[in-house]
Amino acid sequence: xxxxxxxxFAWNSPEALLIGGAAIxxxxxxxxxxxxxxxxxxxTEPLLREMGWLAQRVQGLSxxxxxxxxxxxxxxxxxxxxxxxxxxxxxxxxxxxxxAMGESLQGTATRTARSLGELNTRLETIDKAQANIEKLSxxxxxxxxxxxxxQTRGAFGEIQLNDIVQKALPSDAYQMQxxxxxxxxxxxxxHLPNPPGPIVIDAKFPLEAYEAIRRADNPRAVLExxxxxxxxxxxHIRAISEKYIIEGETADGxxxxxxxxxxxxxxxxxxxxxxxxxxxxxxxxxxxxTCMATLNTMRAVLKDARxxxxxGAIRKELGELYKDVDRLVERVGNLDRHFAMAAKDIEEIKIxxxxxxxxxxxLDNFDFEELVQPDPKPLSITPAAE
Length: 386
Fold this sequence. Notes:
two-stranded antiparallel sheet; 386 residues; alpha/beta; 5-stranded mixed beta sheet; disordered C terminus; 72% helix; 7 strands; 9 helices
């Protein structure tokens, strides 16, 4: 900082630089004056005039600096006021922004809390579903273990068939594990009337070939599994036809029950020739759904047969009912005649009662204490004899 003429300026300010430059010029002039001190007075006079002029210029610069200082002070005050107003406006704006941000943050926090609550609920639902899926996976693994064993798989098919048959037929219309005359035991024997006669349902289907098709991961393995599937199904169809179709004892056909809709769809979509061979051997392949439909049809047949069996008894009962109706009509006629006779008797009784009432009233009018005077007899005059 530098102070000149009662004013303080920074070293790098324009005013300080200007004053410094003027001082340097003055110093140079003085040096020149000292060097030329021995010169003549005529040469010195113009120099003195220049020095006076320089002094006036310096004084003018000083005055300008004072005015400039006043202007700078005024500008500084205005700048300070502007800064204050700007700060106040910025503080107000900042407060408004802070309030808006607070409200927005509060709303965001509320929505976030609600979303977190919904997310927590959904996560709980997902956890429950995951637990159910894990439980179901365990059940599926258990089912796979059951189906991997022939005996347990056969028992599983029999249980499923038994459940379907119980829902579709009355208890006296079928027999589980029925023994035929050839010593073979049928999984289910439905007692249909003749024709067609009792029909057998077999539930022992080989699933190994189907599992091999599902596990096949290349075309050759698929081809080999398909060939094994054809051979297994053909052998099973032939066994059912030979064991459970007995002339004069069972129906001229049998049912092969598949405990899986997937296997049923696989046979009909990829092995239609096997299905046709089953038709030719009079062995009809059914799934749980089609088995239920077939059993419902059998139930209608059983109901119709039982109605035909009872037709004679129904006609007899209708005859007896007709006789009862005739007797009822006759007795109603007799009762009507009795009612008519009773009405006639009541009418005659009413007439007699009216007559009796009239006679009673006439008797009531008689006075039994009064005596009735007899009429005097007239005097008879006998004429004189002449």
